[in-house]
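Deviations from the work plan: none for this task. Representative record:
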Amino acid sequence: MALLQIAEPGMSTDPHRHRLAVGIDLGTTNSLVATVRNGISVVINDEQGRALLPSVVRYRPEEAPQVGYAAQRAQSEDPYNTIVSVKRLMGRGLHDLADAGNLPYAFVDAPGMVQLKTACGIKSPVEVSAEILKRLRERAEHALGGEMVGAVITVPAYFDDAQRQATKDAAKLAGLNVLRLLNEPTAAAVAYGLDNAAEGIYAVYDLGGGTFDISILRLSQGIFEVLATNGDAALGGDDFDHRIYCWILEQSSLAPLSAQDTRLLLTKAREAKETLTEYPEVRITAVLSTGEMVDLLLTAQVFDALTASLVGKTLGPTRKALRDAGLTADQVKGVVMVGGATRMPQIQRTVAQYFKQEPLNNLDPDKVVALGAAIQANVLAGNRVADDWLLLDVIPLSLGIETMGGLVERIVPRNSTLPTARAQDFTTFKDGQTAMSFHVVQGERELVADCRSLAKFELRGIPPMAAGAARIRVTLQVDADGLLSVSAREESTGVEASVAVKPSYGLTDDDITRMLKDSYVHAKEDVHARALREAQVEGRRLVEATQAALAADGDALLSAAERADIAQGVSALAAALEGSDLAGLKRAVEKLNGMTVEFASRRMDASVRKALSGQRIEDVEC
Amino acid sequence: MSDYDFHKNHFELLGLPPRFHLDSARLDQAYREIQAQVHPDRVAHLGAVERRVSMQWATAANEAYQTLRDPLARARYLLHLRHVDTQEETNTAMPTAFLMEQMEYREAIAEAKASHDAHALERLEGQLKEKIVHHLAELERALDQAHDDAAAASLVRSLRFLNKIAAEIADALDALEQ
Ligand SMILES: Nc1ncnc2c1ncn2[C@@H]1O[C@H](COP(=O)(O)OP(=O)(O)OP(=O)(O)O)[C@@H](O)[C@H]1O
Ligand SMILES: [Mg+2]
């Protein structure tokens, strides 16, 4: 039998056309955007030639928000309207923020994600992050001069579902097509590994402005396999600044500080910390709004002592990650350092001591994440590359469902390779019960109260039966972005129960739509025009991909009638793309999607068969 | 509608013979080859249908790989394919000698923990590993040669306990390290 001709899935039909895609490192302190140009990953600078965009947004009444350096300069002068380190607030409730009292913001205490009162009204951290992303999108579009296929956005590996979802929502608000949410250490490993043709076990130690991640990876034959990840989503350079800030307060007897002065001293603390990386001591001077003077000398030795417990806090997760990976520190071939805060000598020393080797610092710790994200974005956009690789990443924290007595039934264990799905059966406890509610949580602790609440959902339409007779299978599916979706089914009757998920910290679709509308107050484009443009991009993508699939496998995998059907669907969609009827266009996309499910499955099946056909057939048959 | 064909069993999906004995290099190779075809990263720029089908396949490949890679899960799965219930939740009747041994292990762990004796824990860990290896060899005989499913199910139940004790020792060692 002749072997089937299968086109490489995911490859562009027109190999000469380069699809524009970017990688974005949305950092606590700094954000960057990078892209692959002529096969090389490069950071896209702003017009003044600067790579970093400070992750700072300042809201002003009746004006577009300021983002970046200008906003950063205004922070002491206009603290309530100038939001820094917003990443620490993503997907978090007010009660989650241990240091909320220290943060000089006007928080709104509402259920769900925290919100901030600003000169432009109440803002969600998602909207603030969207401003940063929008600025980077504009920078990229300007530099690339073409239509962008999409972006890879990086997130800390230890981000939970609520934080990931908030990041994806921010990207949506910023008008970005998210190709993938990529874990920051994994992005760094891609940039490092491809550069160095590395093979073996590597640890990526990423201490940024607000988050700490440790990932253990196995690099072999073009596969980057994350074995385990751990971290602390609220530990970073910011906390070192805060230790210095507290020390300043202890050393000087100052009157209670205004928000302006707090910001000023935090900025001074950060400068002092960065200076101590190069020098044995630093002089800290400031004049406060009250006229009070600060003039202190901080030595590296005192700084070390002040921050020893923070440094130590990174070792617990490191140990746990190694243990989950079933490895010991001496099996690690290299430790890649990522994040600006790893420049601190005490971090370098501690890591070297723990792994008994000098850590690898040969890539710029500020840029490596964005560079890796761009490399991955380039492949995900469907561009052909010389060497092929595959990333296999994991879910950082276990998923479970609340059971009797506030206990957690663990369903998806942490460090499961993504995508993953796990099912669990539940039953009714009353005769004739037709509805049932569930609470999904994330975390490693046994009590629901100690885990993070993700969502509550209710199942309706269970056929009435005797208590205990229904068998309701709840499936938790986690996709390659690490995002959860839930489905449920009554197994004895096959009834699909409808699931209405209410996110605990996330935004509903209505919230997003409202924010989208709000964001057009200052924009030229209107909501409808943008929706149409997005639908057109998707429609064109679908036409192109379907034509490519037909050309490659239509003869082998479809009957003449099936083929004609799909071809007709393609023509209908192509016609809809000519006009500007949004609803009609969406219908044509839906219709063609529906027609191609079977074809897509057959193609997948054929490509797997082909991949395995290199193996001995007699074994496969038995 | 046919999305991923969920009737395919894990061995079929990975192109491996349905038996306990496993060529783990071949398992790894097959898994990598399949993921290279079906992983969502391969279709990220395509339409919603391709992305969904890919997620289902990649999820199935991960499940198959995780199950077959772990000997206890593999044995359990083989028995499931043979319609044998391992009765891990219901059948707690263990031979008295086995129960005695368990108690001895638990006592030894508690003692070593109390006296912060990492060496004693490591010794216990070594002993236990040997025992597990021995059980796995018997399991292979029962499943692949003797086709004695009842004996295999009983071995699965014992192994489950041994693994639990191994995890307790690892936890204790971890606690000592901190
Ligand atoms: N020379 C230096 N010495 C000490 N710390 C430094 C130095 N340079 C930068 N940092 C610190 O690094 C942190 C910023 O690092 P980076 O830009 O990698 O973080 P980020 O990506 O914004 O944050 P995250 O990854 O946590 O979201 C800040 O706390 C900054 O003060
Ligand atoms: Mg970072």
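The first helix of chain B runs from residue 10 to 14.
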